[in-house]
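Render this sequence as a predicted structure.
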Amino acid sequence: MYKLLRGSVVPRPIAWVSSKSKDGILNLAPFSFFTVASRNPPTLLISIGPGDNERKGSIKDTLTNIREVKEYIINMVPEQLGEAMYRSSASVEPEKNEFELAGVTAQNGRLLNAPAVLEAPISIELRLDQIIPVGGDHLVLGKVECVQIDEAIYTGNYKIAIDKWKPLANLAGDFARLMPSFSYEQVSMIEPINTT
């Protein structure tokens, strides 16, 4: 069922979650069960499952860190950071710094005591609201405290130029580019819909 669901519910955005343990160890890991949970208060949701591969059945470091420290950052993944994001998905011991593994730079959050990915075009700082167990997974709801956006992709009036940062999407273990984008207004102007 898991394979059917992840192959059907696509494309999915990737939350590149950066966190810090209570001992100050940095963690970075991608999650594709991710969406907006609420507009007001602004709240994001990620679903974190149990560990896999070598650490099968264990609790992921990201969940432990969020549970204990209550602060974390979701970094958005553009095409050019795809390989780095993928490297950070490796199952490694808790003391391993995935920023180093991915080859990206950790920078302090603007408001919270959590690390952000300097190279990411968008970093969203979150404070834990609640963790809801669902089966073997955990829904993590975080309230948005601050959004850092690269000036090169910001168009003003709280809008972001999607075509300038080129988000990467998850497709059942593979990845997809989402550009060029289009609207149905553009499509209908080009070619009328035949209803006969």
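Summary. The chain has one domain: 2-190. The two ends are 38 Å apart (CA to CA).
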